[in-house]
Each structure stands twice: as structure tokens, then as C-alpha cells.
Design goal:
This protein has a domain of 40 residues. It contains 4 helices and no strands. It is extended and about 55 Å long.
Amino acid sequence: MITDFILKAFHALIYLLLSPLRLLPDVSLESEFSQAIRSAGEYISGLDAIIPVNAFISALGVLLLVEGGIFTYKGINWLIRKIPGIN
């Protein structure tokens, strides 16, 4: 019951935050863009014999997550140093 309330509150918050985006009209991708994505997928699938694509994407995601954390940490420290009286 509590988790149901938390999930509904979370859903309502996301719904509220995304409401301006829902006012925009629906769009569709051009066929050339879709074809380019399909072609890129075919080229990447050829690399699957050399490097497993799922493992590569997972490793890239972890790397980006760690680098993002470091960037955030350095940004927060920079902001703290800019506040007078804290140093």
C-alpha cells in the first residue's frame, strides 16, 4: 500500500514534469534517418565476431557513468570553493 502510493506519486511527478512536452505535436523520423540507423546496426553487428557488442556497450556505459560522477564531484567542489567564507 505504501509502495503503491510512492509509485503513484512518482508517476504523477513525472507526468507533471513532462506535461509541456506533451503539448508538442507528434513527429516522425524521415526515412533516410531510419535507413541510416538500420545501416549502422548492420555494420555494428559485423563486429560481433570480434568484440561482443553487448559487452562493449555495457563497458562504455560504465565508463561514462564513472566519468560523469567524477565530473559532478569536481563541479560540486568547484562551486563550494567559490562560496566565500567556506574555504
